[in-house]
Write a structure and sequence with these properties.
Number of helices: 7
Low-confidence stretches: none
Shape: globular
Strand content: under 5%
Oligomer: single chain
Radius of gyration: 18 Å
Number of strands: 0
């Protein structure tokens, strides 16, 4: 017999996911100020719009499931703290005056934030697949609306940050990165794109 899922922990996941999206809006807003590369700036501007949409999708999930969007939890507080810390790290880098270095910090901060965000949605998809009733229905709809964006955000920003670092080290870089050129949407695709970068130089 299938074990009943943990309602309390599913709600905790959703609270953390909503807080992650709210923090993501702040993170992308700040990262845009640090972006020097025009193509990267355009990319992140699109991600900011999509993150705002993801926040609205999750707000709708809370409404449909009768949950309080503002309910606090220790885990949610940690997520908010990490988001605020990433914003402060980017601001600190920008205050140092080296715009290229600040852009690298922004890229790293976005990758850190998107790693948590991607995990949240992977877990939401898992719940949607294995739960039942309204929870499964509502989360499946939300997951399908967001999943592709989240893959794109994580893998493409990782590629951008890697190539900008390589460029800063004085080696030939692929800009826009292979992940962008090949429109990577999966971990396997990201690995293949990274391995193919030498042939693109």
């Amino acid at each position: 017999m299938q074990k009943k899922y943990n309602d309390h922990q599913v709600e905790e996941l959703l609270r953390q996911a909503l807080e992650t999206e709210r923090g993501g809006i702040k993170i992308y807003t700040t990262a845009l100020k640090a972006a020097v590369n025009k193509d990267l700036h355009e990319e992140w501007a699109g991600y900011l719009d999509e993150t705002r949409t993801h926040e609205r999708v999750l707000t709708s999930v809370f409404e449909e499931l009768g949950l309080d969007t503002e309910q606090a939890s220790p885990g949610r507080s940690v997520v908010a703290h990490i988001g605020d810390s990433l914003v402060k790290a980017m601001e600190m880098a920008m205050q140092n005056g080296d715009r290229e270095a600040a852009q690298l910090v922004a890229g790293e901060c976005v990758v850190l934030a998107e790693t948590k965000d991607h995990l949240n949605w992977e877990l939401i998809g898992h719940v949607a697949k294995h739960a039942s009733g309204d929870v499964a229905r509502v989360l499946k709809k939300a997951y399908e609306a967001v999943e592709e964006d989240e893959d794109h955000h994580l893998y493409h920003t990782t590629g951008w940050t890697r190539e900008l670092w390589i460029d800063s080290l004085g080696f030939p870089a692929v800009l826009p990165p292979p992940e962008e050129v090949k429109n990577v949407e999966t971990a396997i695709g990201a690995s293949r794109a990274e391995h193919a970068r030498e042939s693109m130089l």
